[in-house]
Amino acid sequence: MMTYAPLVVVVDDDVAVLKALGRVLRAAGFDTATYSSAEDFLTAPPARRAHCLVLDVQLGGMSGLDLQRHLRAHGSTLPVIILTAFDDDAVRAEACAVGCAGYFDKQTDVDVLLQLIKSCTPFDTGSAKAL
């Protein structure tokens, strides 16, 4: 039986953020799937169950909060961590109301983000949350 590292999905329209976060996550022992839009993620989700979604708020097209609402409306229990360059109290309140696991600005120390991802992401693949 093959065992996989936990899969963290990242959706951000900034290619530099996708690359940097992908490297950090892989160095921390995670597998990653990266998407530059919410639509790309919905059209071609990962082939295996994700353990956590790191999501930018401002995306071209469907926003991160719209994607979070869409996932919840379709019964997803996937932990969502919001990572944004534009911290805003109203957006933070809306993200929390929809049930995000965490909300950070992009200047947050990466170790704080990794700590939350690890707490949301069981390393036991049998307890993974489905999309």
Outline the structure in words:
It is a single chain. The chain is α/β, with parallel strands linked by helices and 131 residues long. It has one domain: 3-Layer(aba) Sandwich (Rossmann fold). It is built from five helices and five strands. It has a five-stranded parallel beta sheet, sandwiched between helices. α3 runs parallel beside α4. The radius of gyration is 14 Å and the shape is globular. Residues 122-131 have low confidence and may be disordered.
Give the gist of this structure.
It is built from five helices and five strands.
List descriptors.
globular, Rossmann fold, 38% helix, five-stranded parallel β-sheet, single chain, 131 residues, 5 helices, alpha/beta
What is this structure's SSE topology?
Blueprint: E1 7-11, H1 15-27, E2 31-35, H2 38-43, E3 52-55, H3 64-73, E4 80-84, H4 89-98, E5 102-105, H5 110-120
Parallel strand pairs: 1-2, 1-3, 3-4, 4-5
Helix pairs in contact: 3-4
Shape: globular
- What is the class in the CATH system? Alpha Beta
Radius of gyration: 14 Å
From the 3D coordinates, which CATH architecture would you assign? 3-Layer(aba) Sandwich
Percentage of residues in strands: 15-25%
Could you estimate the helical fraction of the residues in percent? 25-40%
Distance between the termini: 23 Å
- The DSSP helix count reads 5
Strands of the widest sheet, in order across it, are 2-1-3-4-5
Low-confidence stretches: 122-131
- Count of distinct structural domains: 1
Order of helices and strands: EHEHEHEHEH
Structural class: alpha/beta
The name of the CATH topology is: Rossmann fold
| DSSP strand tally | 5
Main beta sheet, described?
5 strands, parallel
Average pLDDT, to the nearest integer?
Answer: 88
The CATH superfamily is known as Response regulator
